[in-house]
Amino acid sequence: MQPIKVYADRRSQPSRAVIIFCRVNQIDFEEITVDLFKSQHLSAEFRKINPMGQVPAIVDGRFKLFESHAILRYLASVFPGVADHWYPADLFTRAKIDSILDWHHSNLRRGAATLVMHTALAPFLGLTTSPDAVKQAGKLLMQSLGRIESVWLKGDAKFLLGSPQPSIADLSLVCEIMQLEILGNDVRDRFLGAHEKILIWMDNVKKATSPHFEEAHELLFQVKASMLTNAAAANQTSEPSTKLRIASKL
C-alpha cells in the first residue's frame, strides 16, 4: 500500500494537527511541504490538489481531500489501526465531536487566527493591520476559551466531553491555541493565564501525543524566536526597508 501524501506547512495549525495524528497512529505518509510564505499554495500545481489553495490537503491513491477536519475524520475512519477514541464508532459521541469541530471554525479559529494575523504576521510581513480587527478577535478568543471550559471541560475532565482519552477535536483545538505562541509569552499569557482548565487540558493533549506533538511544533517555535528577534531589531531602526528585510529572513 502506497503511503498517503500530506501537503502541509508546519507553520499552519491545521497542518500540524494532521501530521501529529498520522504520527501518533502510525499512518504511513509522505509529507510534502507547501511553503505559505512563498505563496506555493497559490501555484497552479498545488491547486490541482486543492483548488481552494489552502493547506493541509492529502492524496490517498486517486482520492484527494482538503479541509483539516474532513481529513482527520477520513483518516480516523479509513485506517484500521486508529484507536476508537479519536473518532468513536458510537454515533452519539461522534456527533458531539463533530459539533465541536464545526464550532471551532467560526469561533476559536476565527478569534485566534485573526488575532495572530493582525498582531504578529501582518506587521512582520509589512501588510496592513486593523486595530478594530485585533480588538474583535481578542474578544472572540476570550469568549471561545471560556466556552471550552464551561461546556466541554466541566469538572475534572481530562479531555473534551469528559473523555479519558483525546479525540480529533482535542488535537485540532489545541493546535489552534498553540498558534498564540507567535504573539510572544506576555500576550499569550494574557489570554491563557486566567484559564487554568485550558492549560491543564493542553498539557494532557501534549502528553498523549508526545513526542510527535513537540516535533511538529518545532518550526513554530523557530518562527516565534525569529519574529521576536527581528521585531526587536526593527524597533531600533527607522529605515523604511526594515520590514522587507525581516520578511526575507524567515
What can you see in these coordinates?
- The protein has two domains: 4-82, 3-Layer(aba) Sandwich (Glutaredoxin); 91-229, Glutathione S-transferase Yfyf (Class Pi), Chain A, domain 2, CATH 1.20.1050.10.
- It contains twelve helices and four strands; from the N terminus they run E-H-E-H-E-E-H-H-H-H-H-H-H-H-H-H.
- Mean pLDDT is 92; it is low at 238-250.
- The radius of gyration is 18 Å and the shape is globular.
- The chain has 250 residues and is α+β, with helices and mostly antiparallel strands.
- The chain has a four-stranded mixed beta sheet with strand order 2-1-3-4, with helices on one face.
- Helices cover 58% and strands 7% of the residues.
- Strand 1 (4-8), helix 1 (13-24) and strand 2 (29-33) form a beta-alpha-beta unit.
- Helix 1 (13-24) runs parallel beside helix 3 (68-78), helix 1 crosses helix 7 (168-178) and helix 4 runs parallel beside helix 7.
- The relative contact order is 0.12.
- The chain has helices spanning 13-24, 44-47, 68-78, 91-106, 108-125, 131-152, 168-178, 185-192, 196-208, 212-216, 218-234, 242-249; strands spanning 4-8, 29-33, 57-60, 63-66.
Please compute the radius of gyration using only Cα atoms. Answer: 18 Å
Low-confidence stretches: 238-250
CATH class of the largest domain: Mainly Alpha
How large is the count of helical segments? 12
Shape category: globular
**How many beta-strand segments?**
4
Helix-residue proportion:
55-70%
Number of domains: 2
